[in-house]
Amino acid sequence: QFVFSPETHERTKPDVLANFDGNEIAIEIQLRSESPKRILKRTQIHQERGAYILWVTSHLSTDSSDDHSEE
After folding, report:
1. How far apart are CA 45 and CA 62, in angstroms?
2. Model's pTM, two decimal places?
3. Staple 45 to which of 5, 17, 21, 68, CB 3.0 to 4.6 Å?
4. CA distance 2 to 53
């Protein structure tokens, strides 16, 4: 399911969204290269919602020109 930022109304769709002990936890699994800018944006959306976030990655690009933006 999509989740929306209460501040900017941007959306993201975490791979796993769970509640544990009253806390929302978003788990993002990133197996392909993704730009730090895009990862930061997705992280901010979860933080604005008050959710904890866990990233599982196989590769994280450090090249800001390596933007694989889907939108």
Report:
1. 21
2. 0.73
3. 5
4. 15
